[in-house]
Amino acid sequence: MHQLAAPRTMILLDPDLEPDSASASAGAKQTAASGPSKALRTPSTRTLDQFLSEAQAAAGLRGQVTVLLATDATIRDLNHRFRGKDEATDVLSFPAEPLKNTKAAERVAGDVAIGVETARRQAAEQGHMLATEIKVLILHGLLHLAGYDHETDAGKMQRRERQLRARLGLPRGLIERAAPKSTKARRRKP
To answer: Could you report the per-residue pLDDT of 6-31, keeping only the tens digit for each?
Structure first.
């Protein structure tokens, strides 16, 4: 009998997450009967798992990755417990602890948690679908799992993220959105 290989990727849903509840702050004016706008619906786990596999391969990240789609309350709790910040955020990355057994270490890359409610608001602000925003966040999280840190690497993560977004057909990323306008203006000048 053949053994099945361990999955390389997995998408998990927070049990408290209401996948298709559109946020009023996201600008979705829907009646209860019609439900949330299609653009702000949570994408299927199959769609996201397919993208996660593609993005992980593009980033050259080895090992299993699990992505949790969570409520802002869950993200806030994780952010507080692991980073000491008592606020919701869009994406958190948890690289696997280094193991002495290199074969075991290669099997797990880490975990990514995404705040779907925050992602829904950001998708509305950016004018694209929630699925697109979640993909941007997954890529950002994967780069953190790969060891990149935009707060300390002098633009290395931003350059890699830009390259991979182009390859994967994604819009502007988190680092570029957060850059001060004066920095953006300086970069455009010859």
So the answer is: 447 789 988 888 756 444 333 433 33
The Cα-based distances of 158 to 80, 163, 174 in angstroms read 26, 9, 9
Residue whose entry in the numeric block shows the structure tokens 């990355």: 93
Q: What is the pLDDT of residue 36?
A: 52
Report the predicted TM-score, pTM, of the whole model to 2 decimal places: 0.80
Residue 168 falls inside a structural domain? yes
| CA 174 vs CA 44, 66, 91, 121, 133: distances in Å | 23, 20, 10, 14, 10
The domain of 151 spans 9-188
Which of 83, 31, 61 lies closest to 138, judged by CA?
Answer: 61
Six-digit token pair at 165? 């977004």
Cβ neighbour number for residue 96 with a 10 Å cutoff: 17
Cβ atoms within 10 A of the Cβ of 172, count? Answer: 13
